[in-house]
Amino acid sequence: MKLRRIEPIAVRLPMRRPVKMAGELVSAAHNVLVRLETQDGIVGWGEAASAPMMTGETVASMVRAVNQIAAALSVIEDPQDAQARMHRALPGNHGAKAAIDIALYDALGKGAGKPVSELLGGARRESVPLLWTLATGVEADDIAEALAQRRAGYAAFKIKVGIADAAADAERTAAICRELRGAELVCADANQGWSRDDALRYVRGIEQLGLAFLEQPVAAADVDGMAQVAAASRVPIAFDEGVHDVDDIRRHHAARAAAGGSLKAIKLGGLGEVLAAAELCHSLGMKVNLACKIAESGIAAAALLHLAAAVPAAEWGVSPTSHNLDDDLLASPLRIVNGRAEVPRAAGLGIEVSEKQVERYRLANR
Ligand SMILES: [Mg+2]
After folding, report:
1. How far is the CA of 39 from the centre of ligand 1 (A)?
2. Does residue 233 sit in the same domain as residue 273?
3. Which residue in 80, 107, 165, 356 has the fewest CB atoms around it within 10 Å?
4. Each residue of 277-325: pLDDT tens digit?
């Protein structure tokens, strides 16, 4: 595929309501889109959230990285070839690379008349149940939202913890679990919010609740701490911020630091990389959650759904996050009915991006 142009577009997308998690309160999403044009005139779209606390990348660094990498991508054979070229042009920068990679898959799919799920080896499922994240940080608000979404058809929930002290977080978790009795899956995510002692206090406080997993209780780099918490916990421990490539997954597995974890394109650098990570997890007996960052538009959400269709399993849920935005960038929204999302079937990502909407939320070039 010959490429004519790869353009990074920084956007600020207002959120429907702020999301509270350990270390930050997020009220708008600062994401980078990639609009790519082939010599044949096909346009591909990609997106990645800036997530300084997860990937170390900012909107400004991502825009620069996309521009720098673009020069190395005038002709590509396939996504693997593109990844190799991107790595030679600039190591790391997985968020920027994910946005380019998704746009390449979109363009390749459109060129071949195939949905991205097919390029990823084929759709194993036509729709996927979604996981709803509770992130108000306030017990009564989390409960009200959980009950409303349960009525709307959601059966899987993630509670953001690591916000208050561990004992208060455990009490809030218990209160929400009481209201969600009978739900298919309830889990919690501490976003590295605790010390080892806090995490141990929390897992003792919630051991009777039957949580499916507890995500990233301690710092990303503290794999020994994850292992210590995992050894003391009846609830399975999941990685998120601590994993950026397949070697990190092997390290967590070898250290018995996690029974599975959350996979995101912005951490792993592309869709093929997430698929490979999910396949590795499956072969190691580790469970998988597939997720977008706090608020990514329907572009990243569509990419996630194609992945969710193609991976061997996503036992720990699938969480697109475009519903956290006030407005979307798609001409028509993704179909979500009764807490399940349909995997788009049209070529490429199977979505139509509204360039008018993109312009509306575009940030001035920096
Ligand atoms: Mg997480």
Report:
1. 39
2. yes
3. 356
4. 999 999 999 999 999 999 999 999 999 999 999 999 999 999 999 999 9
Query: Any idea of the CA torsion for 320, 321, 325, 328, to the nearest 10 degrees?
Result: -20
* C-alpha of residue 295 to centroid of ligand 1, in Å: 13
Mean pLDDT of 200-225: 97
Tokens 């139509």 correspond to what residue? 352
Give residue 215 CA to ligand 1 midpoint distance, Å. 6
Cα of 52 vs centre of ligand 1, distance in Å, is 14
CA of residue 216 to ligand 1 center, whole Å: 7
Domain boundary among 113, 138, 164: 113
Whether residue 162 is found in the same domain as residue 270: yes
The mean pLDDT value of the chain amounts to 96
Q: Is residue 66 part of a domain?
A: yes
Residue 135 CA: distances (Å) to CA of 145, 191, 192: 9, 12, 15
The Å distance, Cα 217 to ligand 1 centre, comes to 10
Specify whether 139 is located in the same domain as 204: yes
My answer on whether 55 and 151 are in the same domain is no
pLDDT at 47 over 70: yes
Q: Are residues 93 and 147 in the same domain?
A: no
Tell me, in angstroms, the distance from the centre of ligand 1 to residue 190's CA: 7
Provide the residues around ligand 1 (an ion) whose CB is within 5 A: 189, 215, 240
Q: What is the mean pLDDT of residues 144-154?
A: 97
Number of domains in the chain: 2
Query: Are 228 and 317 contained in the same domain?
Result: yes
pLDDT value, residue 365: 63
The arithmetic mean of pLDDT across residues 257-272, rounded, is 98
Q: Which of 47, 79, 113 is the last residue of a domain?
A: 113
Q: What is the DSSP letter of 278?
A: H
- 225 CA to middle of ligand 1, Å? 17
